[in-house]
Structure formats: C-alpha cells, structure tokens
C-alpha cells in the first residue's frame, strides 16, 4: 500500500479461495493473532508487515431441498457452541447447492426458509481443511424437522 496518510492502521489479511476467510466476523475468529497487526505509518519510513494466516477452515458442502426433493432456498444461521455463542447469518438467497467456509470449532447450522419449519443440524465439529457434505431437507412449517449432516 502506498500514499497512506500518517497514522495508526489495523491491517488484516484473508484469502477465501485458499481456505482462510475474513476473520473480521466473530464467527470466524480463532486464537491466531498473527493475521492482524497494528501498523504505525509515518512519512519518513516504509513499514513492513508480515501476516500469517491459519488455521485453514473447513468447507461445508450444503445441499438444500424441499419436501419433494427439489432445490430450495433459505437463510443459513451458524452458531458457535463455545462460550461466546457467536452467530453468523448468510441471507435468504442461498439455494440448491452451496459451499461455505466454517471454522474448525463446534457449531450448529440452522436453515430458515419461508413456509418451512426451522431446520437445525446436530452439532458439527469439522476439522481444519476438511470438506463436510450436509444435506438439508426442508419440511412445510406444520411438520417437525430435524436435519443431520450425511
């Protein structure tokens, strides 16, 4: 970066295509403090910043289907099960088949869709750099539903 006015900046890095999501969202937080740095910029010197990404995140391969086995759309809500219970939501445009990076921690996935019962997964505990297939079968809101990863 160049031509920054003098001051203090917080710098962080991520590369989702390589399995490292933006840890700005608390759901993705890990104990890695090396991906963020406070940098003092002055006009007299250049600052060298080294950031270390990691651990790699897991990838959920989510398929959402309705009661007739057709692709369906909904919102994804992830809630960590650690002390912070950090929620993270992806809007209602998620449909059919999608891939989502998730931290290697215990969490639950919920799928909310208009006209359907809220679907909650069992506790998921993905490992770093693991791909986890999850099939969600939505049921009309008048029926009870429990979804588990396959």
Account of the 3D structure:
The chain is mostly beta strands and 150 residues long. The protein has a domain at 58-137: Immunoglobulin-like. The protein is built from no helices and nine strands. It has strands at residues 7-12, 36-41, 58-65, 73-80, 87-95, 97-102, 107-112, 119-120, 131-137. The strands form three sheets. Strands 5-4-7-8 form a four-stranded antiparallel β-sheet, with no helix packed on it. A hairpin with a 6-residue loop joins strand 7 (107-112) and strand 8. The radius of gyration is 19 Å and the shape is elongated. The mean pLDDT is 87.
Attribute tags:
150 residues; mainly beta; Immunoglobulin-like; 4-stranded antiparallel beta sheet; 3-stranded mixed beta sheet; 9 strands; 39% strand; elongated
Question: Briefly, what is this?
Answer:
The chain is mainly beta. It has no helices and nine strands.
Topology of helices and strands:
Elements: E1 7-12, E2 36-41, E3 58-65, E4 73-80, E5 87-95, E6 97-102, E7 107-112, E8 119-120, E9 131-137
Parallel strand pairs: 3-9
Antiparallel strand pairs: 1-2, 3-6, 4-5, 4-7, 7-8
């Amino acid at each position: 970066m160049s031509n920054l006015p003098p001051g203090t900046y917080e710098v962080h890095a991520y590369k989702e295509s390589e399995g490292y999501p933006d840890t700005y969202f608390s759901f993705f937080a890990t104990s890695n403090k090396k991906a963020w740095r406070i940098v003092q910029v002055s006009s007299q010197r250049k600052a060298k910043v080294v950031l270390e990404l990691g651990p790699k995140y897991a990838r959920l391969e989510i398929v959402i289907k309705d009661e007739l086995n057709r692709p369906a759309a909904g919102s994804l809500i992830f809630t960590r099960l650690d002390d912070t219970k950090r929620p993270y939501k992806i809007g209602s445009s998620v449909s059919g088949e999608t891939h989502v990076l998730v931290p290697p921690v215990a969490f639950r996935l919920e799928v909310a869709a208009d006209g359907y019962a809220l679907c909650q997964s069992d506790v998921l505990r993905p490992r770093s750099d693991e791909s986890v297939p999850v099939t969600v079968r939505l049921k009309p809101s008048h029926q009870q539903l429990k979804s588990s990863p396959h």
